[in-house]
Specification:
By secondary structure, the chain is of the alpha/beta class. Helices cover about 65% and strands about 5% of the residues. It has twelve helices and five strands. It has a five-stranded mixed β-sheet, sandwiched between helices. The protein starts with a helix and ends with a helix.
């Protein structure tokens, strides 16, 4: 290869190497920023009881935590259990000669551990062993409670990898065919995820029908958004989809740490990002009798509608470009002078299919 042809080829490769460098930078910033130092902030816990002693204990613990805990009092054990089961609190301490701590590990195992750590110190200060009662335990097949998060990872990878294939190799197909492929792949991915959750790994012991429905809605949203964006982003689609559905998605899902243990940016994303909608929706459906399930389904539904909108916009953009597609045939290039033109044409083809 001559120096004249080697230089453009090198520039071409260096331009494409920018993508993995940006992925490395983004993944490091997202994962380390979200997970490297989980610290409680405004983690809601309750002290069970009434009277001056209970109030003093609650206020003292609240003040000493310096913002880590949001300590309140509730009248009795039943009220505390109810608050745990509707996920408005993450621990309830019952003081006395035999103190007891109520937690709900299905809501978040790491949050339950943070609560246990705080109240073990409280009980130790009273020279009393602490009894821990889990009012909403996870299934036997998911002892850490993080299996739902790894199910999310599997669904996400299957979905955004399909975007790369449909958007790249399928770029020459009509948009309606790509939409059908996206819908079909989301169905297959969701069925695979349901098999993982139930028969294969027993992450849950009930509610498989609902898990499949949420898996499909989640996967379809990613596929439709990704395929729609490919019309505009071309070879940057993989990076764009990874930012949306890996970097910002996994870190804000609450599958490892809930927002009460994360920096404010990721805690804010948890309120409306699709991964959080899936994780919290599955938890609600399987462990908490559908508490707030409608809110989580709304999040997933809105992301699905965003995918439909992305496909509609892609259709309009492609319709406008279509008249310009009739390009005159390229004249033959004399031997010895065509290497540069041939490489330029190859690069155009690559960009057209999203390579």
């Amino acid at each position: 290869m001559s120096a004249e042809t080697r230089s453009p080829a090198l520039r071409h490769v260096l331009g494409h190497l920018l993508t993995p460098l940006l992925m490395c930078l983004g993944m490091g910033l997202a994962y380390l920023g979200a997970f490297h130092a989980p610290t409680p902030h405004d983690l809601r816990v309750d002290i069970v009881g009434s009277g001056p002693t209970t109030q003093v204990l609650a206020q003292t613990l609240h003040d000493k935590s310096a913002g880590a805990l949001d300590v309140r009092t509730v009248a009795d054990r039943e009220t505390a259990v109810s608050a745990l089961r509707d996920q408005s609190t993450y621990g309830a301490y019952i003081p006395g000669a035999r103190p007891e701590l109520l937690v709900a590990s299905a809501s978040s195992d790491t949050s339950a551990m943070a609560v246990e750590k705080a109240f073990t110190k409280v009980a130790a200060g009273q020279d009393a062993p602490l009894k821990i009662t889990d009012v909403a335990p996870v299934s036997d097949g998911d002892p850490t409670g993080q299996g739902i998060f790894f199910l999310l990872v599997a669904l996400s990878i299957g979905s955004y990898a399909s975007v790369a294939v449909i958007g790249g190799a399928g770029a020459v197909l009509p948009l309606r065919i790509r939409a059908l492929l996206a819908t079909g792949m989301s169905l297959i991915v969701s069925l695979i995820g349901t098999v993982f959750a139930g028969p294969m790994f027993h992450l849950v012991d009930r509610g498989l029908g609902g898990i499949w429905a949420m898996s499909w809605l989640y996967s379809a949203g990613i596929l439709l958004i990704g395929v729609g964006l490919h019309t505009f982003l071309r070879r940057w689609t993989t990076l764009g989809v990874m930012v949306l559905f890996v970097m910002l998605n996994f870190t804000s899902s609450g599958g490892i740490y809930r927002p009460e243990l994360q920096p404010g940016f990721f805690a804010a994303l948890h309120a409306f990002w699709n991964g959080a909608g899936f994780v919290e929706g599955v938890r609600s459906h399987v462990y908490f009798d559908g508490n707030a399930l409608g809110e989580h389904l709304l999040v997933l539904g809105l992301w699905f509608l965003a995918g439909v909108a992305a496909m509609a916009l892609a259709g309009l953009a492609e319709a406008r470009r279509r008249p310009a597609a009739a390009v005159p045939a390229v004249p033959a290039v004399p031997t010895g002078a065509g290497s540069m033109a041939e490489e330029e044409r190859e690069q155009e083809v690559e960009e057209a299919v999203g390579v």
